[in-house]
Give the backbone structure.
Amino acid sequence: MTKFFIAISLFLTAFSAMSKGQPTEWQIGFQEAASPLMAELAGLHDFIFWIITFITIFVFVLLAYVCVKFSAKNNKKPSTTTHNSLLEVAWTVIPVIILVVISIPSFRLLYKQNDFSNIDITIKATGYTWYWGYEYPDHGDFAFDAFMLDESELEEGQPRLLATDNALVVPINKNIKMQITSDPAGVIHSWAMPSLGVKMDAIPGRLNETYFNIKEPGMYYGQCSELCGPGHGFMPIMIKAVSDDEFSTWVVEAQEEFAKDDNNNIVFDTKGNN
């Protein structure tokens, strides 16, 4: 029996590692949290879920009790009660207390989502029709585009409709600020990474900001989550989280690969475009 539980534990661990940063078949809950912010979001969700569950059960039990207790069969003579001051105070004060209990962690998390006091790297993401473009202003201001891979281009382990030709590479354990906008001549998009707890609209002419911190190296996937036209379902986001040394090496290579000419145009990208 012990060996059986060990085998199940190893299977679940392997499955969790394989599915990290991406959705899985028949998934009905959140993706595994890959950032401290997402872990807190999931915790707040679970906390509120149990409060709602208790309230729902209480209301149904109370409703069943009232239906039986005050039915015509059990009350030949209807009650003449007009009010109950204690009961009225209770159903006013108790909901207020519940809302206060929920609001405290909610406001604390909302503050953390907008705390940009300790940012290590800034990256700009621009939504186009229908792909994402990225700029690294802190590392030479090089830029590149990320297009969805066709099924014939997928490598082993890469998820369909989520993998791109160029990954957004970031170091682990760093606060990464994302400046998110959309092509001035385009439409509204939304840069969303479920496992990181990040979702921010990309609006033409407006620069929105959010941040994340990835704790473990690996591949993480997201998508545009704002209906933006016929190519909406083909705007994936692929993030590759690496160590500091690997990131520094990649930056040097990227500065050369995505070099710009005097007109600020990318000289060459992986699609072979000039």
Notes: Confidence is low (pLDDT under 50) at residues 1-18, 268-274. Residues 36-72+84-113 form one domain. The first strand starts at residue 121 and ends at 128. The chain has four helices and ten strands.
